[in-house]
Write a structure and sequence with these properties.
This protein is α/β, with parallel strands linked by helices. Helices cover 45% and strands 12% of the residues. The protein is built from 14 helices and 10 strands. The strands form 2 sheets. Strands 1-2-10-7-8-9 form a 6-stranded mixed sheet, with helices on both faces. The chain has a 4-stranded parallel sheet with strand order 5-4-3-6, with helices on both faces. α8 crosses α9 and α12 crosses α13. The radius of gyration is 41 Å and the shape is globular.
Length: 437
């Protein structure tokens, strides 16, 4: 037998021996497991324990209070809040407390942040309203070459240019040539045609408002003859859509934001639409509310409210330096009565405050130092008048005004140090002492 055969035989013998040992062990275990008394006792004991456990579980389940449903830790999805186009970015401006003025007077002096509208001023509301109304009347149709015409000193034109672009219209703005140059540049960047004219009296056919109307009439005459696109003259001074949009939007917003708890509304006026709409909405709801006109130097509205005479001393022969209104303030002040202002000329305005150019300039610099508010000239006038009203009423009252536009529209005039120095208006005050002069 070879060595491999002997190794295989030895491994087989060991396996047989191990198998025999396992068989013997299995038989021993089997003999124990198969013992009848032990098996019966084990089965009986196991069944008893199982029954007892089941009964205990059933009792515990039935006697326990119902378990609360587990709530998902994830919050419900928020309701979408998406504005539709740039038109959706107009209105619902924030109402905020001007801290420095409120602390100085003991009153809440609140301002609507109208400079946050998409076109940068409260005139966005008017622009959207008048264009929408013209569409509804079938006077213009978008994306057909129709053109929006208006005569303006700036802010309304900028708002119209924005909305015209958004809604598919061309825009043609006629302006006096003595306004801050950034207004012209901004209009051109927005795609508007800008026509500058020499400042003249409103009775002159070439006054910027009259010329804008004439341009629209010329386009419509051509359309009637040749069937081309039409023109629409906005006429913000006389168009009551101006007053109506502030009645529908700005007034209700102020009422909601203040909870109806306010004592005075203080605003300047150009067309008069903003003050008229807000006043007509709020006064019937707040019987003790007072409405105050803030009027810049050179405007005749102050005397119209005070004495029922449209007159300004700067209108005296040989004293007037500017054609529109003799002031460095742009956007408010006028020397004629518009249809929008007529809505409040009798009985709706409780008082008027005259604001000098120096007060407006000093207030604008005060607000940038104390609050970081970089306001335009008309907003500075509003704030001067708001402080005067707060002082008159005494601590604890609430006064609402508007920040109409941002100071970036006034860099080359109202915010230009050289221009202001030339006018003799270089600011010197550190606080509000300029209101005590």
């Amino acid at each position: 037998m070879s060595e491999d055969e002997r190794r295989q035989a030895r491994d087989a013998s060991q396996a047989t021996a191990w198998s025999g040992q396992c068989s013997t062990l299995d038989m021993r275990i089997l003999s124990i497991d198969l013992d009848p008394p032990s098996l019966g006792l084990g089965l009986l004991l196991g069944a008893s324990l199982s029954a007892a456990s089941a009964a205990l579980l059933i009792h515990t389940y039935l006697s326990s209070p119902p378990r609360p449903k587990v709530q998902s830790s994830a919050p419900p999805p928020p309701t979408p809040c998406i504005r539709d186009g740039v038109e959706g970015l107009i209105g619902n401006s924030h109402l905020f407390r001007i801290k420095s003025l409120s602390q100085a007077t003991g009153c809440d002096i609140l301002a609507k942040a109208e400079f946050l509208n998409v076109g940068g001023s409260t005139k966005d509301r008017v622009a959207l309203a008048v264009i929408t109304e013209a569409e509804q009347k079938g006077l213009i149709t978008p994306n057909t070459g129709c053109t929006i015409f208006e005569g303006t000193v700036g802010s309304t034109g900028i708002s119209l240019a924005v909305i015209a672009r958004a809604k598919g219209y061309k825009c043609h703005i006629v302006m006096p040539d003595d306004q801050a140059k950034e207004k012209y540049e901004l209009l051109e960047k927005l795609g508007a045609t800008v026509e500058k004219v020499r400042p003249v009296s409103i009775v002159d056919k070439n006054h910027f408002v009259n010329l804008a109307k004439r341009r629209a009439d010329e386009m419509n005459a051509k359309a009637a003859k040749d069937g081309g696109p039409r023109g629409y003259f906005v006429d913000q001074f006389e168009n009551l859509a101006n007053y109506q949009v502030h009645y529908r939007t700005t007034g209700p917003e102020i009422y909601q934001q203040t909870g109806g708890k306010l004592d005075a509304v203080v605003l300047g006026a150009g067309t008069g639409g903003t003050l008229a709409g807000i006043t007509h909405y709020l006064k019937p709801l707040i019987p003790n509310l007072i409405a105050i006109l803030a009027d810049p130097h050179g405007s005749g509205l102050y005397h119209k409210i005070k004495h029922n005479i449209m007159y300004s001393p700067t209108e005296a022969e040989g004293t007037r330096r500017r054609y529109q209104v003799d002031t460095v303030v742009e956007g408010i002040g006028i020397n004629r009565l518009t249809k929008n202002f007529e809505k409040i000329a009798k009985g709706w305005i409780d008082d008027a405050i005259k604001v000098t150019d120096r007060e407006a300039v000093e207030m604008s610099r005060y607000l940038i130092r104390k609050d970081g508010l970089f306001v335009g000239s008309s907003s500075a006038v509003n704030c001067v008048a708001a402080v005067r009203v707060a002082r008159e009423l005494g601590p604890g009252h609430t006064i609402v005004t508007l920040i109409n536009d941002h100071g970036t529209r006034h860099l080359t005039k109202f915010w230009n140090d050289e221009y202001i120095a030339k006018e003799g208006l270089t600011p010197t005050a550190e606080g509000l002492e300029f209101l005590d002069m």
